């Protein structure tokens, strides 16, 4: 039997915590492969991965989530930091970060029109209808992972979901200073 994505996200991970790693590296080909190889060697599954330019010129930011024990995530973080092109790597729990994610849903327009509860559900979750045509309606929801997976479950329950995708998590630390900027400034002064 195929697992529902919301069930998969909420399932028991045997004492593991969902950690978010923020990895900063130079913008060089092959770094992503080096970083993901660290997870592969330790048989840790990456739940989400987002890579983009950071606020520092020439430095890219990897936002990676995985279920792990604290002991294991410390080892993973240290192994990633040893990579020559990695500037800095840190791990965080959800309460230490500002987190954002997006879900994009394609739902059946005929089902949407015949059941007003579907429209109420979209409004209740602050979803945005991006496109409506006679066949399907595209809905965008921006928020926390739990909010996105909950709307997914609701659409499945209504029997109107045609397609679904989620972005990787993006995150900022709750600290007032960017840890990489602070580290680089310390390097310049030393």
Automatic annotation (TrEMBL):
SUPFAM superfamilies: ACT-like
Keyword presence, Amino-acid biosynthesis: yes
Cited InterPro entries: Acetalactate_synth_ssu, Acetolactate_synth/TF_NikR_C, Acetolactate_synth_ssu_C, ACT-like_dom_sf, AHAS_ACT, AHAS_small-like_ACT
EC number, UniProt record: 2.2.1.6
Pathway of action: Amino-acid biosynthesis; L-valine biosynthesis; L-valine from pyruvate: step 1/4; Amino-acid biosynthesis; L-isoleucine biosynthesis; L-isoleucine from 2-oxobutanoate: step 1/4
UniProt keyword Cytoplasm, yes or no: no
Cellular-component GO terms for this entry: cytosol
Catalytic reactions of this protein: 2 pyruvate + H(+) = (2S)-2-acetolactate + CO2
Superkingdom classification of source: Bacteria
GO BP field: isoleucine biosynthetic process; L-valine biosynthetic process
Domain Acetolactate synthase small subunit-like ACT span(s) in chain numbering: 21-88
UniProt-recorded Gene Ontology molecular function terms: acetolactate synthase activity; acetolactate synthase regulator activity
Chain's role: Catalyzes the conversion of 2 pyruvate molecules into acetolactate in the first common step of the biosynthetic pathway of the branched-amino acids such as leucine, isoleucine, and valine.
SUBUNIT field: Dimer of large and small chains.
Protein name: Acetolactate synthase small subunit
Species per Swiss-Prot/TrEMBL record: Prevotella lacticifex
Organism placement in taxonomy: Bacteria, Pseudomonadati, Bacteroidota, Bacteroidia, Bacteroidales
């Amino acid at each position: 039997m195929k697992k529902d994505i919301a069930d998969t996200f909420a399932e028991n991970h045997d004492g593991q915590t969902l950690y978010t790693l923020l990895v900063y590296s130079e913008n060089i080909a092959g770094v992503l492969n080096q970083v993901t190889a660290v997870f592969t060697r330790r048989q840790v599954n990456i739940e989400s991965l987002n890579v983009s330019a950071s606020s520092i010129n020439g430095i890219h930011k990897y936002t990676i989530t995985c279920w792990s024990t604290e002991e294991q995530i410390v080892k993973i973080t240290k192994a990633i930091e040893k990579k020559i092109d990695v500037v800095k790597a840190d791990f965080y729990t959800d309460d230490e970060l500002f987190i954002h994610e997006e879900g994009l849903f394609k739902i059946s327009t005929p089902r949407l029109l015949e059941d007003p509860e579907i429209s109420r559900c979209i409004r209740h979750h602050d979803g945005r209808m991006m496109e409506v045509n006679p066949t399907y309606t595209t809905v965008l929801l921006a928020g926390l992972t739990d909010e996105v997976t909950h709307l997914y479950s609701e659409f499945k329950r209504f029997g109107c979901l045609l397609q679904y995708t989620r972005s990787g998590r993006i995150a900022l630390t709750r600290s007032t200073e960017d840890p990489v900027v602070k580290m680089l400034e310390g390097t310049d002064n030393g």
